[in-house]
Amino acid sequence: MKYKVRTVITISTLLLFPIIMNFLSPYLPINGAFNGVVAGSLMVFAAMFVTGIFFGRAWCAWICPMSALGDVCVKANGKAVNIKNLRVIRFSLFAIWAVVLVAGFVTAGGIKSVSFLFMTESGISVDMPMKYIVYYLVLILYIVVNILVGRRGACHSFCWMSPFLAGGYLAGKLLKVPQLRIKADSDKCVNCGKCNNACPMSIPVSTVLKKGCVETSDCILCGECVKSCPKGVLRFGIRKANERILAKVVESKQDAI
Ligand code: SF4
Ligand code: SF4
Ligand code: SF4
């Protein structure tokens, strides 16, 4: 049932994308920065960071408009991707974006105003026919990269929002905040590999679950691995700080054996 809810939500946000596109745009914060304005999408990115502290990258599976596209494209090319290599590309692009953003604010003499509706005065992102060109280009870019690269290749290779979510996840982990996770009763696992095949983010779930939960900022908490497991090994749960300490003890004991 909850997975159908996910599908309904992500299809809905995809349909709403012409309205909300500017509030997820990487361009508007840059344009705003050179005018000394904090644009709406920069505020949304900050909110993503905060949600990431508690919910990791759940936004990616449950709300992001591109999520529904990712789920469909996986059916066209379900090849697992090289997460580490694509992460280098993604964070390199993000670093360039962040440097330009800071340079913009410095050039403008700092932050002069905050405007959620910056360049979106009507409140609707695609409010004239010309803007549909940008809208369709974004959709085509996501579809083409996903199909050419493999499972959610666009998410892994160039998404400018995921560093905020991953950053929130890492901040929550450092601050020892209880976080939503996929937890595992690893003793029950029979290594069938079904969770690995089901994971849209190409995470080797059957390997990482040995620590007692899926502990990576690449996990978008979609629950596909939970659904696929025939042994009920996996479930949603809250990972608490003291569990991390216990996990480290278990890991060090395993290393010592
Ligand atoms: S990685 Fe980016 S595009 Fe992909 S689902 Fe997450 S926020 Fe959306
Ligand atoms: S590990 Fe499970 S919850 Fe996380 S992205 Fe993969 S399938 Fe989804
Ligand atoms: S699907 Fe379940 S039993 Fe199979 S490898 Fe994954 S966790 Fe283990």
Largest sheet: 2 strands, parallel
Strand order of the largest sheet: 1-2
**Structural class by SSE content:** mainly alpha
Bound molecules: iron/sulfur cluster
Total domain modules = 2
Q: Give helix % range.
A: 55-70%
Question: Please, how many helices?
Answer: 14
Low-confidence stretches are 249-257
Q: Strand tally, please? A: 4
Q: What would you report as the Rg, rounded to the nearest angstrom?
A: 20 Å
- End-to-end separation in angstroms reads 43 Å
SSE arrangement, N to C: HHHEHHHHEHHHEHHHEH
**Average pLDDT over all residues:** 93
Short summary of the structure?
The protein contains 14 helices and four strands. It has helices at 2-15, 17-20, 27-34, 40-55, 58-62, 65-76, 83-107, 131-149, 153-157, 162-174, 194-198, 205-208, 224-228, 241-256; strands at residues 37-39, 113-115, 179-184, 234-239. The structure holds iron/sulfur cluster (SF4) (3 copies).
